[in-house]
Design goal:
Number of strands of chain A: 11
Number of helices of chain A: 0
Structural class of chain A: mainly beta
Shape of chain B: globular
Structural class of chain B: mainly beta
Radius of gyration of chain B: 14 Å
Strand content of chain B: over 45%
Order of helices and strands of chain B: EEEEEEEEEEEE
Strand content of chain A: over 45%
Largest interface: A-B, 30 and 28 residues
Oligomer: heterodimer
Distance between the termini of chain B: 41 Å
Largest sheet of chain A: 7 strands, mixed
Order of helices and strands of chain A: EEEEEEEEEEE
Mean pLDDT of chain B: 91
Helix content of chain B: under 10%
Radius of gyration of chain A: 13 Å
Chain lengths: 113, 115
């Protein structure tokens, strides 16, 4: 089954404790991306990656890091989480055909206290 | 940078009535346009997309959208609402950059269907 998986699905952590949210896709997609969803703000793109070792900032990259060492994986790293990073996070992947039709993962709900 | 405006954060319609969800984008160059649906506690699912092939785009579940360049709009419609259409709907635009496509989403419209 074609899918994007994220782990963990739920995470409660404390300020400053480094964490990683993993994202993996099995569709051989070149493009992968991270978003955060906040009430009243919709989805905002954090980082995206066109292919292995090619990443770029989206609209809200501050406080986040990513890496793309393998085509299927695109982890999101919060080296020193803060309460304002409490949010619902989505990973997505897309082939690089005409339209970049994205497939989304189920989401990771992060709470930073 | 692009911006996407969805007029009406909450829309209520009666079952069987027309659904109209509005989306306007800022680009002067026709971009790729998308509508996604999000059901409670789920990820986003693509409803339909515009890629310049046709201005009237048909999607899943009876939804369609019309690209109007002169109005920079991409409104989503469905002739007859069903209870199962109750969800959050997002309009999105992609913009090609040097290192890949960047995506911009609207703030979403929550659709309530009244029996």
């Amino acid at each position: 089954e074609a899918q994007v998986t994220q782990n963990p699905r739920y995470l409660i952590t404390v300020t400053g404790k480094k964490l990683t949210v993993t994202c993996s896709q099995n569709m051989n997609h070149e493009y992968m991306s991270w978003y955060r969803q906040d009430p009243g703000l919709g989805l905002r793109q954090i980082y995206y990656s066109m292919n292995v070792e090619v990443t770029d900032k989206g609209d809200v990259p501050e406080g986040y890091k990513v890496s793309r060492k393998e085509k299927r994986n695109f982890p999101l790293i919060l080296e020193s989480p803060s309460p304002n990073q409490t949010s619902l996070y989505f990973c997505a992947s897309a082939g690089t055909g005409v339209s970049y039709e994205q497939y989304f993962g189920p989401g990771t709900r992060l709470t930073v206290t | 940078a692009q911006s996407v405006t969805q007029l009406g954060s909450h829309v209520s319609v009666s079952e069987g009535a027309l659904v109209l969800l509005r989306c306007n984008y800022s680009s002067s160059v026709p971009p790729y346009l998308f509508w996604y649906v999000q059901y409670p506690n789920q990820g986003l699912q693509l409803l339909l997309k515009y890629t310049s092939a046709a201005t009237l785009v048909k999607g899943i579940n009876g939804f369609e959208a019309e690209f109007k360049k002169s109005e920079t709009s991409f409104h989503l419609t469905k002739p007859s609402a069903h209870m199962s259409d109750a969800a959050e709907y997002f309009c999105a635009v992609s913009e090609k950059g040097a290192t890949g496509n960047q995506f911009y989403f609207g703030t979403g419209t929550s659709l309530t269907v009244i029996p």
